[in-house]
């Protein structure tokens, strides 16, 4: 429970209409879900303006309102600010400062939600579900991160917060309000190319998360990535923990660095380059362990190593890390296994896509039993390179000897230039021709950007089939 005066002190450029003694018990940004006693925050979105629903929120029991529109009529105590989105972030930052709970910040191009869920599973294994705090779903933007932080309570002992971006300057603000003890950059790949000038720019943007670390904080990033020098420079003055792949299992026996000097890896987390997620050997600091994952894709070995590195940095025992990774279940739309109505294994990777994650998905399918079918939807935010990127993934699928490659969407027409790739302009056109999965296929993978809603293909072909765990 907070009083209005406390919030007033946290917010810049705010005018208060009320005594300040008024108290509220929760936060809501949606007038449809306001509970009696909530502070209603009116946000402007692409489709709706929350200011239009202030009266509805008050009628539903809102005890106070945060608005950027001058209140001509004050029905309840009100805070008036120039920008309610910024005010939400400031409010979340003030709330976060009330708790000493160490938080792990997760950034990167691909795999953020998977790595976050792996970290959460480890924290649950170590602390129990009530004491482990985590972002729900992919609430990782300038609204989702504040709403996540506002769920913090005295019951939480460790937590993980996912942070996403698509424009320069966003990560630093999210990190500042989160105040992480450990900051992770998973990777830097070709995402948001309409707004980011290549992987190096993406690496620098995500690496700004290290600037929010306290002196005792730990920066975690790959030690074997082309962008490693960028992150090393951004982590100057911080303790560093690297993760990555080594030549083979024999290399895991190599001496472990244990120098605590700022900017030097004081521990490392590694697995062999040919490690498969079903079962692999890893070095977690000074311990050699066997790890099993319930998810497809060799790139998820890296996600697991990153999760292990972050939790190791917080002092989580190795035994809990191994148990947590074994208990992890993939999130819907992220390499989640299901079956068609005819019983054919289908991998649902429909949450999102960019050129590098599409190539990784093709690699996953290439490891599955043949004959295989890859269904690829358009990749968004590829900017001026859209045609080249879509042609690239089509050619890559063919080069990996995927027996059938189906391309869907306006930009995917470029992928169809690769020999043997079939093309449909829309998902509706594909499903009109193939309402069920085609016969004679042993493995299917479906992937595309969020706006393509490629899960429609998965639903149509899976029908009543239930998701199955990885084996």
UniProtKB/TrEMBL annotation:
SUPFAM superfamilies: MurD-like peptide ligases, catalytic domain, MurD-like peptide ligases, peptide-binding domain, MurE/MurF N-terminal domain. One of its GO terms (molecular function) is ATP binding. It is found in: Cytoplasm. Residues 24-94 form the Mur ligase N-terminal catalytic domain. The keyword Cell cycle applies. Its EC number is 6.3.2.10. Residues 106-310 form the Mur ligase central domain. Residues 333-450 form the Mur ligase C-terminal domain. Its main location: cytoplasm. It comes from the Bacteria. Transmembrane segments: none annotated. Involved in cell wall formation. Catalyzes the final step in the synthesis of UDP-N-acetylmuramoyl-pentapeptide, the precursor of murein. PANTHER family: UDP-N-ACETYLMURAMOYL-TRIPEPTIDE--D-ALANYL-D-ALANINE LIGASE. This is UDP-N-acetylmuramoyl-tripeptide--D-alanyl-D-alanine ligase. The lineage of its organism: Bacteria, Pseudomonadati, Pseudomonadota, Betaproteobacteria, Burkholderiales.
């Amino acid at each position: 429970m907070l009083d209005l005066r406390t919030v007033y002190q946290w917010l810049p450029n705010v005018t208060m209409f009320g005594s300040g003694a008024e108290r509220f018990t929760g936060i809501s940004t949606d007038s449809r879900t306001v509970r009696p006693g909530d502070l209603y925050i009116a946000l402007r979105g692409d489709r709706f303006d929350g200011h239009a629903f202030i009266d509805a929120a008050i009628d539903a029991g809102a005890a106070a309102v945060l608005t950027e529109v001058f209140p001509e009529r004050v029905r309840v105590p009100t805070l008036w600010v120039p920008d309610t989105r910024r005010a939400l972030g400031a409010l979340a930052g003030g709330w976060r400062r009330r708790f000493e709970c160490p938080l792990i910040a997760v950034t990167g191009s691909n795999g953020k939600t998977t790595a976050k869920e792996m970290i959460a599973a480890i924290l649950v294994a170590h602390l129990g579900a009530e004491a482990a705090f985590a972002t729900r779903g992919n609430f990782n933007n300038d609204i989702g991160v504040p709403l996540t932080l506002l769920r913090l309570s005295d019951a939480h002992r460790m937590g993980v917060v996912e942070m996403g971006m698509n424009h320069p300057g966003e990560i630093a603000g999210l990190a500042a309000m989160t105040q992480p003890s450990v900051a992770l950059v998973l990777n830097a790949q070709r995402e948001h190319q309409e707004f980011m000038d290549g992987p190096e720019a993406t690496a620098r943007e995500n690496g700004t998360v290290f600037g929010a670390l306290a002196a005792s904080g730990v920066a975690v990033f790959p030690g074997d990535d082309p962008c490693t020098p960028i992150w090393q420079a951004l982590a100057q003055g911080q303790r560093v923990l690297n993760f990555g792949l080594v030549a083979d299992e024999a290399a895991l026996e190599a001496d472990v660095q244990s120098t605590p000097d700022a900017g030097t890896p004081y521990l490392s987390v590694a697995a062999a380059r040919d490690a498969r997620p079903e079962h692999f050997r890893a070095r977690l600091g000074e311990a050699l362990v066997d790890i099993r994952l319930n998810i497809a894709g060799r790139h998820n070995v890296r996600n697991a190593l990153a999760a292990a590195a972050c939790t190791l940095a917080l002092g989580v025992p190795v035994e809990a890390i191994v148990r947590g990774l074994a208990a992890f279940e993939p999130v819907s739309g992220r390499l989640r296994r299901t079956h068609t109505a005819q019983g054919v294994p289908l991998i649902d990777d429909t949450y999102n896509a960019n050129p590098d994650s599409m190539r990784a998905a093709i690699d996953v399918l290439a490891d599955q039993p043949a004959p295989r079918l890859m269904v690829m939807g358009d990749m968004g935010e590829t900017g001026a390179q859209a045609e080249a990127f879509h042609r690239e993934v089509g050619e890559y699928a063919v080069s990996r000897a995927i027996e059938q490659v189906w391309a869907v969407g306006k930009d995917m027409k470029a992928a169809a230039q690769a020999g043997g790739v079939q093309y449909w302009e829309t998902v509706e056109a594909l499903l009109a021709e193939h309402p069920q999965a085609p016969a004679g296929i042993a493995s299917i993978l479906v992937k595309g950007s969020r706006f393509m809603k490629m899960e429609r293909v998965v639903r149509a072909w899976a029908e009543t089939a239930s998701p199955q765990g990885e084996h």
